[in-house]
Design brief:
Layout: H1 3-12, H2 24-38, E1 42-49, E2 52-63, E3 68-69, E4 75-77, H3 82-95, H4 105-108, H5 117-122, H6 125-128, H7 149-152, H8 174-187, H9 191-200, E5 225-227, E6 233-235, E7 251-253, H10 254-265, H11 279-284, E8 290-291, H12 296-301, E9 308-310, E10 315-319, E11 322-331, E12 334-341, E13 346-352, H13 359-372, H14 379-404, H15 415-418, E14 420-424, E15 428-435, E16 438-443, E17 446-454, E18 457-460, E19 469-475, E20 478-484, E21 487-491
Antiparallel strand pairs: 1-2, 1-13, 2-3, 4-7, 5-6, 8-9, 9-10, 10-11, 11-12, 12-13, 14-15, 14-21, 15-16, 16-17, 17-18, 18-19, 19-20, 20-21
Length: about 500
């Protein structure tokens, strides 16, 4: 069934009294169309209404190389959807009166400090999990880094704030890592054990892992994929997360997300009827805390949305007159999305094994329309066109950049003179090596080959940062700094 037939079928199902079970064929058609449009090898989908499981199904392949099917038991990384587990655990401690959202961080975890002393005095747990600390992303502090999380947190005080404290929104995982450490202090155990014992076990979530290294070799595991330069789908190297990360390392299955979504829809009551968290404490995690301004890019991603806020581990926005509580997750080879529609008592999970694709949001929107009885819109086509337009704009921007360059403009000094160690107080050392007339920049877990672009700028030729530019600052015929991914390292 193609997407047009699926949309026509869903229109029939909008009439009152039509059973949710009859929506299954339209669901399958939506998922099939989305997988084809975005070239996603495999997906797992969950739809729940209250305590009823309407859809729990795997589609396609968990590995194209081995032609292994995705099942409801296939393990996917939740990436940043891990954040809602961390804030739910914190809400449990608030419920138990062991914690308050507005307790100063300096009392809970003094290791974590901001560079602005005035902001540091006011910083609370709520600020950490509402993306309003003033910190920018700074993902490269932890992403693919050999450094332990406990070693990076004390370095945050060396990072200048990207915007004034509490004056806006900027997504940043680093404060969530600190929030996880606060949970450990309150719960007197490791973050992963607290999540397992206090949340997953009571909810009977049976297949949960907190590192990739803990997943058994023979497990029913989805493997990540990407689109290569030729536009073909290929396996993507797994990001082996050997350390539990409160901001993004939880792995689980579609089957285990059923009780998780139901628990949230029931505002703290587990599917077995046990109340784990008071409704007030849990709902605070889904209450707007920080306004997300809808610029042109954001509005294009959410065209039916007028207002958007970050809560605590969730994004809260309107969608065609309904309140939506959702969060996405992105990690090497995967993109996922978990969504609640409280007014309709609906919960959705869409897990995919293709890097940075738009199937989760397109499929979720189409499923909300279907199960909430809303007028249909061809979301798959909309997001496919958006992806194509974004890719075209990126190509044009790069072409313009390259057209304006002067490749004949030589570097200020000989290539070998750029070699050396460059240091940042928070990010550590970036090492530039000169070997066989070639410059290479090594930082954290990345090794980047550089080719001359123009003047003292160099293009990264392959790998994760391919085609990005790195530039050196030269004074008095001596390189004194290098800027890599907007991080400026000073020569030692």
């Amino acid at each position: 069934m193609n997407v047009l037939l699926a949309l026509a079928w869903s229109s029939l199902l909008m009439h009152p009294g039509v059973a949710d079970a009859l929506r299954a064929p339209a669901t399958d058609a939506i998922v099939a169309s989305a997988r084809q449009a975005f070239r996603v090898p495999g997906a797992a989908v969950v739809v729940v209404r209250g305590d009823k499981t309407l859809v729990l199904k795997g589609y396609g392949q968990r590995s194209l190389e081995a032609q292994q099917p995705v099942t409801a038991n296939s393990i996917f990384p939740l990436a940043s959807c891990t954040k809602q587990f961390t804030t739910t655990l914190l809400a449990l401690f608030v419920h138990e009166k062991k914690l308050d959202w507005d307790t100063p961080v300096k009392k809970l975890y003094p290791v974590f400090q901001l560079s602005d002393p005035h902001a540091n005095e006011l910083l609370t747990l709520r600020d950490l999990v509402a993306h309003r600390t003033g910190l920018g992303s700074h993902d490269l502090l932890w992403y693919h880094a050999p450094t332990r999380l406990d070693d990076i947190l004390p370095k945050v005080r060396h990072l200048p704030l990207d915007y004034p404290f509490r004056s806006g929104y900027r997504y940043s995982s680093v404060p969530f890592i600190a929030a996880g450490r606060i949970a450990e202090k309150i719960g007197q155990d490791r973050w992963e054990k607290l999540i397992q014992n206090r949340l997953c076990e009571p909810l009977e979530m049976k297949t949960v892992y907190f590192t990739t290294t803990a997943i058994p070799e023979d497990a029913d595991r989805a493997w990540g994929h990407r689109l290569n330069k030729r536009g073909d789908v290929e396996r993507m190297a797994t990001y082996e997360m050997a350390e539990p990360n409160p901001a993004g390392s939880l792995h689980t299955t579609a089957r285990d997300l059923v009780p998780w979504l139901q628990f949230h829809l029931a505002n703290g009551i587990a599917p077995n009827g046990e109340r784990l968290i008071a409704s007030k404490a849990l709902l605070e995690t889904r209450s707007p805390q920080t306004i997300i301004r809808l610029d042109d890019t954001t509005h294009a991603l959410f065209p039916e949305t007028l207002f958007m806020n970050y809560a605590m581990g969730w994004v809260v926005n309107d969608y065609r007159g309904l309140k939506i509580v959702a969060h996405g997750g992105l990690i090497d080879g995967f993109r996922v999305q978990l969504t609640l529609v409280p007014e309709k008592n609906l919960g959705f999970a869409v897990l995919t094994n293709l890097h940075d694709n738009r199937m989760p949001i397109a499929t979720t929107n189409a499923l909300i329309d279907l199960y909430a009885g809303l007028p249909t819109r061809d979301w798959i086509r909309y997001y496919r066109q958006l992806v194509d337009a974004e890719a075209k704009a990126k190509r044009q921007a790069r072409a313009t950049r390259d057209r304006l360059r002067d490749p004949a403009a030589p570097p200020s000094v000989a290539l070998r003179d750029f070699a050396g160690e460059y240091e940042h107080p928070a990010y550590g050392v970036a090492t530039v090596q000169f070997l066989n007339n070639q410059l290479t920049l090594r930082f954290s877990g990345f090794n980047c080959s550089l080719e001359h672009y123009e003047h003292d700028s160099f293009r990264i030729t392959h790998g994760f940062f391919e085609d990005e530019l790195t530039s050196f600052t030269v004074r008095d015929q001596k390189p004194v700094a290098v800027k890599f991914m907007d991080i400026e390292f000073q020569r030692k």
